[in-house]
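Sat 14:20. Reprocessing the chain from the morning session after the first attempt stalled halfway. Input below, unchanged.
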Amino acid sequence: MGLFARKEGDGTLYHPGCLAAAKLPHVVKATKEVLRDMGVPFLMVPELECCGHHAWYAGYEQEFQTIMARNKALLRAKGITRVITNDPHCCLTFRERYGIEAKHVLEVFDEHLDKVRKGDETAAAYHHACFLDKLGIDDKVAVRVLHRANVHVPKDNAARGCCGSVGDDFARNNREAAAKIAEKRAKEFKEPLLVVACPYCHLSFQKHRKVRDVAEMLAEVR
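Finished this time. Tokens:
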């Protein structure tokens, strides 16, 4: 059994992250479908809206502590001891600040690689989010999952570089510069389809080219 392959309701929270929940409902839907197909149990807690990452990274420690205390009380009340999330920023926050077991969806997909279904052969580029590296997840994980689904990423794939969002902070404070970075990065990939595994990257690139989340690619071959 994989780490999260346990009985329904035994303490695993699926928390998409604020941005995915608000802006990318199709990614959340696809993720839930894939997790269920893989037999990964999870609960959702709509009351938990924000992990507090931005307050933490912006240096508002008191505000972050208030958010975290509220969320910890909610997690205890719901019996949550593990978290799965689409958002690398949330994952880092849960791990480093909450001290709770947290995994990015890529890690869960990789643990259940034998349950990934093969679809029609597809070529795509893959953009590796900066914060996935902070979690110790390299681009080989996503490429391995995509290859299992018959999505082929070229060996010369440009897998590194910022999408321009910088966790949304830069995008909100300097939209013009962020847009230029995203446009420049988008042009570096040769394939018409770009696959991502971070909601911030998704939104940064979608104005410049066709973008899909890894979960969407897996859900399409269910």
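Residues 5 and 39 are 6 Å apart (CA to CA).
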